[in-house]
Amino acid sequence: MTETTSRPPYAGTRYPRLADIPAFTQWIGGGWADVQTRPDLPVGAAAASAAHRDRLSAALPGQSLVVAAGTAPIRNDDAAYGFRADSSFVWLTSCQVEDAVLVMWARDGGHDAVLYMPPPFRPGDAGFFSNALHGELWVGPSAGLPEWADALGIEVRPLAELGTATSRLDGALVARSAVAVVPGAEASDELERTLSNLRMVKDAWEIGQLREAIDATVSGFGATVAEIPRAIAEGLGERWLQGTFDRHARTLGNGPGYSTIVGSGAHAPILHWVRCDGPVHDDALLLLDMGVEARSLYTADVTRTFPADGTFDATQREVHDLVEKAHRAGLAQIRPGTPYLDFHFAAMEVIATGLHDWGLLPVSVDEALSPQGQQHRRYLACGIGHHLGLDVHDCSQAHYEDYMGADLAPGVVMTVEPGLYFHAHDLTLPPELRGIGVRLEDDILVTETGSEVLSDALPIDAAGIERWVGERMAPR
Does the predicted model carry a pTM greater than 0.85? Predict the structure, then answer.
C-alpha cells in the first residue's frame, strides 16, 4: 500500500497580510462588546495638574507652549521598552499616554490648554489587530479621548488634528520632549528652565505622592533584607535581592524609580552598581540604593548599608560611623532660607576631617576643602544630594543660580546622601579598608520652620541598623 500526503490548496503560495483579506477584516471588525475603560488616576491628580498649568501660564504669558509625553524607544527588533512619560508632561497633565502632546495656546490673559493624543485602535480599526504596540487586540482596552477629557477636565482632541495646526506654533516655546512634534523647532531653554523652577517647590498633593512612594520604599527595604539569608545560603546573590525589591515596587507602585542598586562587598563602593550580578558575601557590607516610583510617577530615593550577617565588624562600623556623622551634619543644614549647598559643605567637612585623622589625605583638611584641592573627593567623587520628585534627580534643567545657588524654600524635597567608597583596587588605602562602601541617603522635606526626614522609619546609626536587620532576618 502506498501512502500519499495531500497538500492544502494554498501551499507554496505567498501568504497575504491579514489586513489585505477583506473576509478577515470584516469578520474581526464586529462582534465585540463595548468595554468601558476610564483612566486610572490617583485621587486629586487632575486638580493638581490644572494648578500646575496655571502656574506655568502665569510664568510665561503671551507665548504658546508645547510639551509632549514622548515615545518608548525600541529595545531590539520589534520589541519596545516599557513606556514612561516625560516628567514635565506628567506634571502638567497627569496623563501617561504615549505620543500625547499638550499645547497651551496663547490667548489674552492666559492660555487655552488642549491635550492631543492618538485614539486607541478599537474593533473596526485596522490597527486593532495589526498594530502590536497599540492595537487593543494586543494590549487590551484603553481609555478613549472622551474618557480622558472627563477625567482630566481638559479639552482632548485627536493627535492628527495637531498635524494640521503646527503652522500656528511658529514662535512657540517647545520642550525637548516635543521637538519632533513641531517641524523645525528647537528646544526652548526658557521653557525647560521655567518648568524646572516651578517643579522645585512641591504642593501638598505632590508631597502626599512622595510620602506614599517613600513609605512603600521603606517596606521594600524590609522585604529585601528579609531575603538576605536565602540569597547567601542558596547562592542567589545580588540578583535575587534586586528582583525582590523590583517586584515589591511593581506591586505597590509603578515600579522602581531608577535602576535598583544592590552592591555586596567590593561592589558596594561602585556608585551605580546596577548590574547586580555578584554573590552576596556573608562577611561583607551590602549597599542597597532603592526607590519605589508611585503610580503618579513620583519617586523615592533611599540608601542604607547593611552588614549581611547582621553585625558590623570594627572596621566596617568605623567607616559607617563617619558617614553617619557626615549625614547628620548635612541634615542639620536643611531649613528654609539656608543656601542649598550648605548641607554639602557641612557633610564634606566631616568627611575630610575623618579621612585626615585616618591618615588618608596627602594635605591638610583646609587644603583638601579648598576649591583647588578636593583630595578627599577621591573617596566621595559624587554629589551628596539633589532635588527629588517626578525624577530621581529632579529639576536637572534648572540653572545653577536657581538650584545650587539658591536658598532652600518650604516645599522643596531633596536627598542627603554622603558616603565613603573605598575601592578594592585602590592602593592608597590600607588593606582593611579596601572593598568597603557605605552610603546613607534620606529624603527630606523643607518645612516652614525646618525640615522633616520623610524616610526616618529606617535607622541611620549602626546599632539601630543591626537591630532593624536582625528583626527582619530572624527565622520565622
Answer: yes
